[in-house]
Specification:
With 97 residues, this protein is mainly β. 14% of the residues lie in helices and 44% in strands.
């Protein structure tokens, strides 16, 4: 999931759509605002998603990364477009019909 701090949600003027229950690493359960829609772009990729409002920094989670077909390069510790599909994002789907 995309996670953003409260001040970022306010700066972007995002409305709370729902409350979501999240489980933290210590096992605690908390209700947090779910806001959106958020348009994300990285290089030649983009997607729309919602965001959980929590924490003190932006966290780009696996869901939007999968949607944009981007990866974290272990060698450079940077976000990169998928080298297997550099020109356009690809997705794995069940079938077309």
């Amino acid at each position: 999931m995309l996670c953003i701090p409260k001040h970022v949600a306010l700066q972007l003027g995002l409305d709370e759509l729902y409350q979501r229950e999240v489980t933290t690493a210590d096992g605690g359960k908390h209700l947090v605002p779910y806001v959106g829609p958020v348009s994300l772009t990285f290089e030649n990729r983009g997607c729309f998603t919602g965001a959980l409002v929590l924490g003190d920094r932006v966290l780009l989670g696996a869901v939007p990364m999968e949607d944009m077909d981007v990866l974290v390069s272990p060698a450079t510790q940077k976000l990169i477009v998928n080298p297997a599909s550099p020109n356009i994002a690809t997705s794995i789907v069940m079938r077309l019909w």
